[in-house]
Each structure stands twice: as C-alpha cells, then as structure tokens.
C-alpha cells in the first residue's frame, strides 16, 4: 500500500523518522512518502491532502496528515489533549486519516463519501502522532469496523477560505485558493500580500511570459470533483521566486487583487 505522511515536523526531522518507524511496525507492507508543510499550517496540509488524494492514485492508497495546533481550546490542555483524529473516504477509494484541525479537511468537506472520527484517544501523549495515532491509521488501513466513531458533520468543517496562500513550493511559486477561470488573461493586477504590493500579468500558462515576469496564472495543482475539475491560480515569477518578491509570506495569509488603473 502507498502511505502518504503529511506533517509539519520539518524536512528530514527526527519526528518523521519516529512516526515512519511506528507506522512500518504496524503496517510493514506500507511504502511511505513524506511531505512537510510549515508549522501549524492546516491549510497547506489540506491542500496537499486534496492534491494527492483527489487525483489518480494506486489502489489501496492512504493519506495520514498530522498538523495539530491545539487551537480549538485556548485553555490549559489536560494530559496533552488536542484535536481528534478523523477519517474521510474519497470517491476514488483513497482513505484519509488526519487531525481534524483548522482547514485540514476543508478541501474534502463536500466530496468525501464517508466522514467519521477515528476511535483512538486524543490525549495521553505529547507526541500523539507517534504514540497514539498510528494505531488508528492501521485500524483504518486494515478495514476494522471498530476503527470508526461518530460521524463528522460537514457544517463542523470550515469551508475553503478564498484568496489565501494555500501552499508555497520549493521554487517559491505561491499556490492560492483563487480558482482558475475567473480571471481574463492579458490584464494586469495589483497583488498585495504580506504588506507588499506587486504588479502581476494574468497569463494562461506560466512559461508563456518573458524571464523575470510575475504572473498570476492557472498552476499545476487541481483535481476532479463530482461537480467537475478544479484548478487553482498561483503567483509565479519566471526565473525567480514569487515568494521572495512578497517577503516570504506565511501559509494562509490573505492575497488581495485589484485591477491596475492605467
């Protein structure tokens, strides 16, 4: 089985190694693929989950995501309690198990065919993703009926926030939650992000502009839902880093667009 692990541990962090070791102990047949997102970045985690889970995937693919800011309750947490583990089944058969926190399930909110909490404790360890959650992942992977608790109601999952930074890749391309198809190619927009304003050319293809041009164009990320195909706009600086142009914004920051006044 293919097992994606998406977490905010940091690239090559010891935590990834420990969680991977525990998952392999419980699921020795699993082939693990690790993806890191910024600390507490539930929107980035949710975006990665959807990109991997809603596109073509091998049979018996499971995604485990763990970004748990523990911001659902600002009071002191007893016994390291935090947001609960949840499970979603996608239309293509991909299974998703992850912490129900922030926007982590927002991209699956309206497409999941099953949506339950997972029957594992939410408290009892500072390192729940190593000590508690792998048992739930294994139970779901093995199809155990006792793996599932009560339903997660869609109204308890926040909708996808519009106009936010969803994910920044290693090239500095800024993937946003603006949907493609709503912007006319050929125009210029003022883009304000992280207190920086730049002018971007609306393009229908990232490399269809000269070197050094900042574009706002349909990116490589998107997936098919029962309602049709979704593709997301991204800020792309040909030959450079769009993220650097905007002083390296944080995940989920607001992106403001305005027409350029001639």
Number of domains: 2
Task: For the record, give the distance between the C-alpha atoms at the N and C termini, rounded to a whole number.
Answer: 56 Å
* SS content category: alpha/beta
- The stretches of 5 or more residues where confidence is low (pLDDT under 50) are 75-81
Shape descriptor reads: elongated
Provide a compact summary of the structure.
The chain has five helices and 14 strands. With about 260 residues, it is an alpha/beta fold. The chain folds into two domains: about 1-155, S-adenosyl-l-methionine hydroxide adenosyltransferase, N-terminal (Rossmann fold, 3-Layer(aba) Sandwich); about 165-260, Bacterial fluorinating enzyme like (Elongation Factor Tu (Ef-tu), domain 3, Beta Barrel), CATH 2.40.30.
Task: Write up this protein.
- This protein has 262 residues and is α/β, with parallel strands linked by helices.
- The protein has 2 domains: 2-156, Rossmann fold, CATH 3.40.50.10790; 165-259, Bacterial fluorinating enzyme like (Elongation Factor Tu (Ef-tu), domain 3), CATH 2.40.30.90.
- It contains 5 helices and 14 strands.
- The chain has helices spanning 14-26, 42-53, 128-131, 133-141, 242-245; strands spanning 2-7, 31-36, 61-66, 85-89, 95-99, 114-118, 148-151, 165-168, 174-179, 188-193, 196-202, 214-225, 228-237, 256-259.
- α1 (14-26) crosses α4.
- It is elongated, with a radius of gyration of 19 Å.
- Residues 75-81 have low confidence and may be disordered.
